[in-house]
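Slide 14.
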Amino acid sequence: EVQLVESGGGMVQPGGSLRLSCAASGFTFSMYDMSWVRQAPGKGPEWVSAINTGGGRTYYADTAKGRFTISRGNAGNTFYLQMNNLKPEDTALYYCAAGRSSWSPASLRKYDYWGQGTQVTVSS
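Slide 15: predicted structure.
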């Protein structure tokens, strides 16, 4: 059974940091590109960041550049999103996703497997 389990969400003040983790099982993790996608209340899903199979290529939405860092540990079937200088507009449910197709890393169509999400709330 394929599973993607996010953790690390929580409530933080503006300017604070969080590190999200996603633990993968049930598929060959090292063969999949991985991504973080978020969805704020009342809004559609928004792609945040992606990383290729080997971890050598990373991609960021403009809203994440300079503040977020994506990484992966293939040995442990886990990948991460370090989020610094968080803003209230970063408040959302954050999902991790895995995909192998040739769609752009920023396209949600690329991803076959999805987690259940972890809530991030940025508020003073």
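Speaker note: Residues 21 and 97 are 12 Å apart (CA to CA).
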